[in-house]
Every structure is written in C-alpha cells, then in structure tokens.
Write a structure and sequence with these properties.
Strand content: 15-25%
CATH class: Alpha Beta
Largest sheet: 5 strands, parallel
CATH topology: Rossmann fold
Order of helices and strands: EHEHHEHEHHE
Radius of gyration: 15 Å
Number of strands: 5
Pfam family, one: Usp
Family: Belongs to the universal stress protein A family.
CATH superfamily: HUPs
Number of helices: 6
Protein name: Universal stress protein
CATH architecture: 3-Layer(aba) Sandwich
Helix content: 40-55%
Distance between the termini: 23 Å
Structural class: alpha/beta
Strand order of the largest sheet: 3-2-1-4-5
C-alpha cells in the first residue's frame, strides 16, 4: 500500500508518527511511505535578488529540517520511505502530490480546530479533504 505522510515538523507531525509506531498492526513497515513537506516560497520582491542555485539550496535546507527527523524515524521502524518537497501552499501542494502519486491512504496530524476555527484561520487538513479523493486518516 502507498501511504502519503504530509509533515510539517510540528508537534502534530510527531504525534502522528508516534501513533503509527504505537499501532504497528494498522500499517507497519510492509508499506511504501512517502513523507512530503511543502515549503513556503520566498516573496518574489526578495527572491529576484537571488540566483536559482541559492534559492534551490535554501528550499532544500528548509525541507530537510522537516524531513530529517521523519527519515530517522523510518530507519528506526524499518519502513521503506521516500521523501519529497514542493514549493507553495501546503494543501495545494499535498493535493498535487496525491494526484501524481495516487496513494492508497493519506495519514496526517491535525490541530483539531473547531469548524469555526477552520473558517477563521483556514486549515491544511480542510484543504486536503476538499481537494483529495484518497482516504485520509487524521491523528489528533
């Protein structure tokens, strides 16, 4: 089974990984995992002063800060893990990866805002649920 793990390096990501580790009978190491993070682009008025190599290195460093602990977790649990990152809005970037990868399941941590909180603050989770047809397991 292909499982997409959208991660952002927050405590919610850590909780999601801990949940998966504690419930190995649900998923475990026999699946193909893809850890994905979205990196916010530098505003164009600032990025125009930087060359493409510098920008790419910056974006890769930001992504690696989030993905490194997930990679270590996967090594400890014996998971097969691929990693990826893209620039842009997290919900839209996740939807793009879902379209390209066609995962069987998306597992993500959620802040657990109320419906009113999601309307006022927006929510990556709500955006993913609205854009993606793959099943989603939310861990709060």
């Amino acid at each position: 089974m292909k499982i997409l793990l959208p991660v952002d390096g927050s405590d919610y990501t850590k909780r999601m990984l801990a949940y998966l580790a504690a419930h190995e009978e649900l998923l475990g190491p026999k699946h193909d995992y893809l850890a994905f993070t979205a990196v916010h682009p530098i505003p164009s008025h600032a990025s125009r002063f930087l060359d493409r190599g510098t920008l790419d290195a910056y974006y890769s460093e930001r992504a690696e800060e989030v993905l490194r602990p997930v990679r270590r977790f996967a090594e400890q649990t014996g998971w097969t893990l691929r990693v990826a990152h893209r620039l842009g809005d997290p919900a839209a970037a996740i939807a793009s990866v879902v379209e390209a990868e066609q995962p069987d399941l998306i597992v993500m941590g959620s802040h657990g805002h109320t419906a009113l909180g999601n309307v006022l603050m927006g929510s990556v989770t709500s955006g993913v649920l609205a854009r993606c047809k793959a099943p989603v397991l939310l861990v709060r």
